[in-house]
Amino acid sequence: MILFWFEIYKTFSRWRTYISFGFIALIVILTEVVMKLSANEILYRMLRSFEKDFLIFGNVLNGWFVTAFIMNSLHFHIPFFITLVAGDIVSSEATSGTVRFLLMRPPSRGRIITAKYLTTLFYTMGVVIFLGLVCVSLGLILFGSGDLIMNYQVPVMRIVYVPEADVPVRMLLAFAAAVWSMTVVASLAFLFSTLAENSIGPIIGTMAIVIVFYVVGNFPFDFFRTLSPYLFTTYMIFWQRCLDNPIPWQGIAKSAAVLGFHSIGLFSIAFAVFNRKDIKS
Amino acid sequence: MAGIFFLLSTGLIQAQEDAFRYLDSIEKKYSGLKDYMADVNVHFDIEALKAPDMQATLYFKAPDKMKVESKRIFFFPKEGGFFNPFLFKKKNFEARLVERSIYEGRKTVKLKLIPMNPDAFNKGSGLTIDVDRNVIREIKILPSEGREITAVIDYGVFDGFDLPVHIHLQLDIPPSEPGGTREFQLGQGGKRINGRVEITYSNYKVNSGVSDDIFTEKEFPGSKSRPR
Fold first, then answer.
1. What does the pLDDT look like over A225-234, one tens digit per residue?
2. Which of A45, B9, B51, B104 is the most buried (most CB within 10 A)?
3. A198 within some domain
4. ipTM for the complex?
5. How far is B124 from chain A, CA to nearest CA, in Å?
């Protein structure tokens, strides 16, 4: 536990750690202000399939919708912020030449790498929770509260209506799922970090995999569709299902399990690699 | 040849006059209806719209003002969802009597209405009118751009006026262009909006002097209360 807090202290002592929080705050503020100014355009784009045949009354563009909208737009970018720390947490010891001092101390390699991994997860959770807090608080201030309308395109286009009373719990679930998803990205960057001796490689490597998987998984060709179930990025958007109606628990459980196995697997490899790491050369 | 043309044209004119006679009877019947307000409950049974029942208050003021007030988000069908007896004006439609029939044991006529304005969204309607009560029992939006909507209306008597207590809407609407927040996802694409909407009206207040102010728009923090 002491090791964990020590790693937390080290991580949060670096200015690099706060880049993500700063950029997230900036992006969310900018997005929400722009959304406030171009509310009609957003609503038109969102509801055009229904506006032809339905009159829609009430505060559709509320804080909850804005939060879901931003989460949806940012879940592609958040992995980058996570890799900034996760990709650096082990490799930075090699870069700064402290790895030998670290491993000469009494705590075992296993305890050290576990403490670093838990710190990575703590940071990942912090980033997603920070995103949620900024989105929701600013969203509710600027746009007010209301029922949540989600426009799903998969598996078929449909509008989903979540009553206002249910939305906070659904949002909590969605953010918990988002944390769980980002844990895989963090684990991947963490593994690369144990393999590399500088931070750039793990960051670029992780982002390259995430981007390639996203692109491949979304190509509308049968060949890529058959690959899609084998890509972890396919399951990373399962937070959206928490806002569906009714909640598809089976699908959520499957995605959470797949992602969980990925995280455990990636950490296990990182653990083994770190335990066998040659620090003499 | 001229004789056949004459017979056909007089038949057509006769059909038009008959049709407008029935529409005029409805308008005359409701001439005393200045306004009404009612509680509305909308139940959706549509795969493309997953929503619980929605409640609102609907205000109508003759001849064509309508407003829905709801504290929550409210979806309301644009066509066939609410009752306006003054909707089918002579100047706006070409009307033709299609047939006389029996509908649920009552004498009815079927009219076909085509809007005069060729740019109108609604390309035409078929009305089934109960000729004894002078009420519209069924509105069928004529298929255009693949859309088909049928509204069946049940009435109750409120302050001497037959007003809807239940409207059963059957929708079959083609998908629009995808839009919204998930454009990066490639799913199976659009699906027809197909299903039932049950609209129940209750707690009518008829000719209570609904103020014009109700129909002026008010803004919510993030969007607008007017129909979007």
1. 888 899 999 9
2. B51
3. yes
4. 0.74
5. 15
Q: Is residue A233 part of a domain?
A: yes
- Per the CB < 8 Å rule, is B51 touching A142? no
The whole-angstrom distance between B126's CA and the closest CA on chain A is 18
Tell me if B83 sits within 8 A of B163, measured CB to CB. Answer: yes
Q: Which residues of A touch B228 (CB under 8 A)?
A: 43, 47, 51, 55-57, 60
Environment class of A9 (CB within 10 Å of its CB; exposed 0-12, middle 13-18, buried 19+): exposed
Identity of the residue numbered B107:
K
Q: Do B222 and A157 touch (CB under 8 A)?
A: no
Task: Evaluate whether residue A20 is within a structural domain.
Answer: yes
CATH code, residues B2-215: 2.50.20.10
Both tokens of B200, joined, read 């129940």
Q: Which of B37, B38, B31, B71 is nearest to B54 (CA)?
A: B71
Q: List, as ranges, residues 95-124 from A with C-beta within 8 Å of B.
A: none
The token duo for B199 is 């609209």
Domain ranges for chain B: 2-215
pLDDT (tens digit, 9 = 90+) per residue, A117-135?
Answer: 999 999 999 999 999 999 9
Count how many domains chain A has.
Answer: 1
Q: Which of B81, B176, B228 sits opposite A49 (nearest CB)?
A: B176
Helix, strand, or coil (residue B154): strand
Distance CA A51, CA A44 (A): 8
Q: Residues, chain B, total?
A: 228
Instruction: Tell whether A138 lies on the interface with B, counting CB pairs under 8 A.
Output: no
Query: Residue A160 sits in which domain range?
Result: 2-275
pLDDT at B11: 53
In a domain, A281, yes or no: no
**Element at A30 (helix H, strand E):** helix A16-37
Q: Do B179 and A48 touch (CB under 8 A)?
A: yes
Helix (H/G/I), strand (E/B), else coil: B194: strand
Paired strand residues for A161: A149
Given CB atoms, is A165 within the 8 Å cutoff of chain B?
A: no
